[in-house]
Amino acid sequence: MSRFVLIALTVFALPHSVRADAKADLAAAIDRRADESWTIAKQIWEWAEPGYQETRSAKLLADTLERAGFRVERGVAGIPTAFTATIGQGKPVIGILGEYDALPGLSQQAVPEQLSRDDGNSYGHACGHHLFGTASMAAAIALGEQLAKTKQPGTIRFYGCPAEEGGAAKTFMVRDGLFADCDAVLHWHPGSRNAAGDASCLARMAVKFRFKGTSAHAAGAPEQGRSSVDAVELTAHAAELLREHTPDFTRIHHTITAGGQAPNVVPDFAEIYFYVRHPQSEVVAQLYPRLLKCAEAGALATETKLETQYLGGTMEILPNNALADVVRGNLKSLADLSYTPEETAFAVRIQETLQKPVPLERLADVHDSSGETTKGSTDVGDVSWVVPTAGFSTACWVPGTPGHSWQAVAAGGTTIGRQGMLLAAKTLAASGWDLVTDPDTLAAAKVEHDRRLNGREYKPLLSPGQKPPLDYRNRPEP
Q: How far apart are CA 38 and CA 427, in angstroms?
């Protein structure tokens, strides 16, 4: 009998009652560490580190997993703040994703009014990645203990994933084969409601256009100057005109990250940062050369020099209903969120600042997101093209709160965020246990994954030989 058959025979579906008892144990293990997990999450919230610079956050998570018996490999895929942490042995291999980068310009205290922190840090966890990484870590630790306790074959691997916000770290981790042996991958995300289903997202590419011109006195010798800001303005205008001639559901948006410092000096350096999104990665790939022409036109018209920093892109999520059914069932059975009087008072104050507040009465409801395409983007999409993947969200913010807002940062620093984080950890752990102990679900997920690929090969939105843009959050320099 082959070694493969011997291993396969040891992986069998446990009876439902046995799995239910195991899930209760997993939830209890997460509750026992709730205070420790919240301390870790709050510390990462306080640090609020930029993408690819999450040195302390990554170390805190990796060290905690190492103390829990995980085999930790740091600096994977050529990224100092990326790591993997593995426990158990044999098949199946279940991956759990964790993130921990913050967003610029969203410094905020944990109070229900817009109030920046006074420590000089301009970053804030407006997407809740401090909760994301911590909940995933807590679930992985609980699953590792359960494997050891029951002597159940299987491997749990936590993926420490930096720079999700525009840095696309997972694409480089996928490219380096870090998911090659996984049978399934689970992820989650903080939100303003509980939701699960086989949803997708928008594919996305990112690029910075940098223009170098010639400085001169704007009044005394304007003819001697060549304005980089003019180049940026023309590029932005051309991109606005491009919108009319793009496929439905395209999104093109930008910010000017450098644009001169004094009106009486013709600026010799300027930078504009673009995203292009669409539900299909093939369309994004076709739109990028057209956007590049807008920048080339801006440089040509202003006689400035164009430098392009292509930051790569992320694929749309390839849904998997077989896994989504497992996750949705666990989230529905575990969702029990409710606010204390203090949390309610905080939430009411936050809702006064929202354009579209949502009633607080149904915090434990679970929205079925099956078939939806969310308007955001994530490098989880690249993972989903190489291994069956499923995710969900839990209510870590006041209902109606948009992501990437000061209100999200504020709630994520309170016990409202703590509640959603612990619910996510329990849902991940329960779903992970279902997958470890039910080979039929994994087999169905693999069949579905192959069907959805339909013969297509994974082609990441990266340039040949492209390295991770470790400096993409740095202040632009001429």
A: 17
